[in-house]
Structure formats: C-alpha cells, structure tokens
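Q: what sequence does this backbone want?
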C-alpha cells in the first residue's frame, strides 16, 4: 500500500519534535508498505529549514513543501500554516509522479487549515482519506484560554473541524474519549479509532541498555542521589497548559517537610522565565535546558520518580496522550501524574500513581508515597510499553483499512525517488 502521511510539523532525526509521523512511517515501511511523510520545509519547530522536495531520513521518505518562512510574530506563522494546503495541492501531481499515487492520504493535525486540501488530493487520486486528530481544534485553544470563542479564526477552525469529521473515511484520534465530541459535530458512526502515542522499538531496546549511557547530567543526578537526595524529574514543555506551577508549589511544600526530595525540570516554553522566577529561593528545584531525547531517557532512568501535571479542565475529559507519559513509563522507576481520572482512561497502566489536579498538597503527598514504594521493575515497564510500541500501533492503524479503492491513472508513476541521506 502507498501511504501519504501529511503533517505540517513532522519531526524526526535532525528535524525536531513531533516524531509520531516518523515512527509510524518507519513501522509501516517495515511492514512492506511504501510511505511518504509530507511536511513543511520551514516551521518554528525545525532545527534548520529544509529544501523543498524529497529527502530520505534514516530510511523514512520525506517530502518538504516550500512554505513561507517567518519570525516570532503570529501573523507569519499563520500565513505559513495557511500556505501548506495550497502548496500541497499544487505539488501533489509532481509528488505522485515520483512516488506513485496514494492508496491512503492521512491528514495529521497540528492544525486543521490544510484538511480540505488534503481531502481534494485524496479524492483526486481515488485514495482513502483519513484524518488524525491530536488535539481537538478549536476547543483546545478556547478551553486553555489561548483565543476567545468569538474570534473569527475559531469560527473558521470550527468549520474545518466539522468538514474533517464529515468527509473522513476514518478518524484516528489520540484521545480515548473524544468520539462523542466528534459524533456531535458530524462524524458518522463506526469511523472513530483510538490510537494513542507510544514508543519506538528503538527506544524499547534503549531501555534494556540504558545503564551504559553516560552524560554529565546523568552523573549529576547520580551524585545527588549518593548524597542522600531523592530525585524527581520533569521533562517536557513549559507553557501554560503544562500546570508546572502546581509542581513548583508541591516542591515548596516538600522543602519544609521532606528536604531530601529534589526537583530537576528539563525543557523550554513560553512560561519558563516566569516559572524560574516563581521558583527563586527554592533550594530543592533546578532548571535544565532541553537536551537530546536519549539524554532525557538516561536522566529518567537515573532519577527516583518522574512527574507530570495537568490543570483541571473539562477539555481533558476527552482524554490525554502526552509523549512524556510513555517515556516516563519506559524509563523512570516511578511516575506520578496529577490529572482527573477521566483524563487517564485507557492509559492507567502507564503510571505509578495519580492524584487530583490543581492541588499541590495532593501532589506532594502522592510523590512522597510513590518514593516510599518499591521501584517498578524495568521488565514490567518494558512489557507495558510494548503494548504501545509503534509497530503495534501502526498495525492497529491499518486494521480499519477495508473496502475497494478507486483507481487513478497519472501515467508512468514508477520513476524512482532521488533521495539524499542525512545520516
């Protein structure tokens, strides 16, 4: 099968965040399918801009579209997002000439502006049209207070959302409880599939060998543990949705009652400077800049416990699927999450303990309880993580691929792709 996976911010080795498209494509390739990840040649998560056209990255085929560059302003970013769909439509014939017409076109949604263009491309080639939903747009933006509901852009996104649900042959969602929301907005019965985030086979193998990893930050954690400290690690984004002020307030409480518990917070985000200011004077908290994923994994393994916190918000009743939760399960000996019970439905086996959100005292108590409990054996954590391996998730993804496909003739589509490896 020929699969086109469209993701404007697709990441991977040397690209940046959002590795899910890369890992799915890698898994499907090993299953014998031909896969192309189509992404923007420039966006704010790229480590460096990519030239338009094909590129092979670690055996995964990418095609980068010539989208506008932008600086820190939101208007430039919006223009880049809006441009992805038209550039995709105009370039789809040339892409098909090199890689063949798709059997399935998957529109994965860090944003929804390109969904109608992706639908037209799929119909042009007689391909099935699937939509992958990571966050519920525009509800997520409104519920998190990022944009008011009356904003015209939210109206546009609401129309795009309903269009996606009505026209998709299949909607794959990372949130276990989102089907009712989608059905209320036009999704026909029987077209919803829940497939959360997960871990790659390479990461599972890394977990078996993690003790051999060496880095100065890992050495620092081990040194502090040898001095009698208990290390709690947070690794991820530092923006308003991450509820890190609750973690800091829990750390402030534990400084008085359990001074041996020490917090290391790794990452970046719009709230980082404010959070550092809030933590000023807390001798049991330190911030570290973003580092490579493998180093984070080694730090998780060396720590005593990992922590993540969510705000109390009806948005999370649809479910959650943060990448860090899967990393925590695989690499950290314990993990504590602050969230409502509805948010964690389907993912309960990933964590050691859960407490209520927006409650620093409850989080502090849960952390002490977790640290006083035995470590979760690595073999048990690996066994759980294997249920969420991208090879397993990729197979589940295609289980719903049924029904005939319309044929489309573009002439000779057997031309080989001219890829350049960046290895």
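A:
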């Amino acid at each position: 099968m020929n699969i086109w996976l469209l993701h404007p911010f697709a990441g991977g080795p040397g690209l940046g965040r959002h590795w899910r498209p890369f890992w799915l494509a890698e898994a499907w390739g090993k299953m014998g399918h031909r896969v192309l990840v189509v992404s923007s040649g420039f966006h704010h998560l790229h480590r460096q801009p990519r030239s338009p056209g094909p590129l092979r990255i670690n055996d995964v085929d990418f095609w980068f579209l010539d989208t506008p560059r932008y600086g820190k302003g939101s208007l430039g970013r919006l223009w880049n997002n809006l441009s992805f769909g038209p550039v995709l439509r105009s370039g789809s014939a040339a892409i098909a000439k090199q890689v063949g017409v798709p059997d399935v076109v998957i529109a994965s949604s860090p944003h929804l502006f390109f969904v109608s263009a992706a639908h037209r491309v799929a119909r042009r080639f007689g391909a099935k049209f699937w939509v992958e939903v990571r966050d519920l747009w525009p509800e997520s933006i409104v519920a998190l207070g990022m944009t008011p509901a009356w904003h015209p852009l939210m109206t546009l996104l609401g129309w795009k959302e309903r269009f996606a649900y009505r026209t998709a042959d299949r909607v794959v969602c990372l949130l276990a409880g989102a089907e009712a929301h989608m059905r209320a907005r036009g999704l026909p019965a029987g077209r919803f599939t829940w497939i959360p985030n997960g871990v790659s086979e390479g990461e599972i193998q890394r977990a078996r060998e993690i003790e051999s990893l060496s880095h100065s930050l890992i050495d620092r954690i081990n040194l502090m543990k040898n001095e009698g400290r208990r290390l709690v690690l947070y690794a991820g984004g530092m923006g308003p949705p991450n509820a890190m002020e609750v973690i800091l307030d829990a750390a402030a409480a534990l400084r008085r009652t359990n001074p041996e518990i020490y917090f290391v917070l790794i990452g970046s985000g719009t709230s980082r400077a404010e959070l550092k200011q809030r933590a000023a004077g807390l001798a049991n908290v330190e911030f570290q800049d973003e580092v490579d994923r493998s180093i984070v994994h080694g730090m998780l393994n060396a720590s005593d416990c990992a922590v993540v916190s969510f705000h109390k918000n009806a948005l999370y009743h649809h479910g959650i699927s943060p990448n860090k939760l899967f990393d925590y399960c695989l690499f950290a000996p314990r993990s504590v999450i602050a969230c409502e019970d509805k948010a964690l439905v389907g993912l309960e086996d990933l964590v050691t303990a859960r407490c209520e959100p927006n409650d620093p005292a409850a989080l502090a108590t849960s952390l002490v309880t977790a640290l006083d409990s035995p470590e979760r054996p690595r073999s048990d954590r690996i066994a759980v993580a294997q249920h969420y391996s991208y090879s397993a998730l990729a197979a589940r993804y295609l289980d719903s691929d049924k029904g005939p496909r319309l044929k489309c003739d573009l002439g000779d589509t057997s031309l080989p792709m001219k890829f350049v490896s960046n290895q």
